[in-house]
Write a structure and sequence with these properties.
It comes from Acanthoscelides obtectus. InterPro entries: Endo/exonu/phosph_ase_sf, Endo/exonuclease/phosphatase. It holds the Pfam family Exo_endo_phos. By secondary structure, the chain is of the alpha+beta class. It is about 35% helix and about 25% strand. It has two domains: about 220 residues, Deoxyribonuclease I, Chain A, CATH 3.60.10.10; about 110 residues, no CATH class. A hairpin with an 8-residue loop joins strand 3 and strand 4. It is globular and about 65 Å long.
Length: about 350
């Protein structure tokens, strides 16, 4: 049996303000699953006011104005609610959809622009880890307020998260266009790009300053598609935390200082920390491993990471030759004393 599900992900920026237009668009375009961010709904607003015929609606609202996420699922599609969580760093709603004996773990998310990026991915990591085990594929959609068209600290952390779960981020064009900017902040992450048979970015009659993402999920009976893999690689966000915080602090200083930190980050990557972690991961998964030995190995490697971190804090860059060279070259430049102390010791 062939089955292709039509999905729509959209930052609607108040569902009530343009609801009739949105409702007409969803019906006319035969959308199967609709994920909305920034619904601006609150618990005191009844779902009957945003009802779409032949759809079930699931909401996760803020208690205050703004934010909020929701799913609309067409009648006849089996689904269940997995999880919802509204925090200051990430608003998320998870459901599982079952078609042709396949289970798809779906998330619609919204990260407020001022929210801490690292904390956001910590929360998302916990959710994906806990919810993906009983599903075949994962699809995470929504407004992350991370522009993937530029290479900065936020996009680096996003890429780290994607690599940790072997996810692919498919959006490559602007999803929000204003008079002075074009950004790609409404993203689509999937555990297997093979299940996506096409997508497009569309304007839904001026409802929002965001564009909608329409994509198709192949739910036909094919047995050879790559399924969701978890823990194939270590989740490195925790290990990168000190460096991410360092980058954040350094970005507040001078341009040349930011250049040094960028070189330092490149040098850290050159140390192949991820490869080392993956090698350790494979070793820990080996046969005939005793619990005491595994705990000892983990503690030893954790100590090594802490040692590298302390080296950077103390200004000891002997393990980071490129960073050391850049600092020496820039020693004659004048920096804010706060940052000078933190780097030079």
């Amino acid at each position: 049996m062939s089955r292709r599900l039509k999905f729509m992900s959209f930052n609607v920026r108040s569902i009530q303000s343009g609801f009739l237009t949105l409702k007409e668009y969803v019906v006319d375009c035969a959308v199967d699953v609709l994920g909305l961010s920034e619904t601006w709904l609150t618990p005191d607003i009844d779902s009957s006011s945003v009802f779409i015929n032949d759809f079930n609606v699931v909401r996760a609202d803020r208690n205050s104005r703004g934010g909020g996420v929701a799913f609309y699922v067409r009648n006849g599609i089996a689904f269940k609610i997995l999880h919802s969580n509204i925090t200051a760093v990430l608003e998320e709603l998870w459901i599982s959809v079952k078609v042709n004996q396949r289970k798809y773990c779906l998330a619609i998310v919204y990260r407020p622009p001022s929210a801490n990026v690292l904390d956001c991915f910590h929360q998302l990591t916990e959710s994906l880890t806990n919810l993906s085990l009983d599903n075949d594929y994962a699809v995470v959609m929504g407004d992350f307020n991370i522009n993937v068209l530029v290479n900065d600290g936020r996009s680096e952390m996003l890429n780290c998260f994607l690599e940790s779960f072997d996810l692919s981020q498919l959006v490559k064009e602007p999803t929000r266009i204003t008079s002075n900017s074009q950004t790609a902040i409404d993203l689509l992450m999937v555990s297997s790009a093979d299940i996506i048979s096409g997508y497009e970015v569309v304007d839904v009659d001026g409802i929002s300053d965001h564009l909608a993402l329409i994509f198709y999920v192949d739910a036909s009976e094919i047995s050879n598609l790559c399924k969701l893999r978890t823990y194939r690689k270590f989740v490195l966000l925790e290990n990168y935390a000190p460096y991410a915080k360092l980058v954040t602090e350094m970005n507040r200083s001078t341009r040349s200082l930011r250049s040094i930190v960028k070189q330092g980050y490149i040098e850290i990557k050159k140390l192949r920390m991820q490869e080392k972690l993956n090698e350790r991961n494979l070793q820990l998964q080996g046969r005939e491993k005793e619990l005491a030995e595994i705990i000892s190995d983990i503690k030893a490697f954790t100590k090594k990471l802490e040692f590298w971190e302390q080296n950077l804090i103390d200004g000891d860059t002997r393990h980071f030759p490129v960073l050391s060279e850049k600092i020496s070259q820039s020693a004659s430049e004048t920096y804010d004393s706060k940052y000078h102390v933190e780097i030079e010791g």
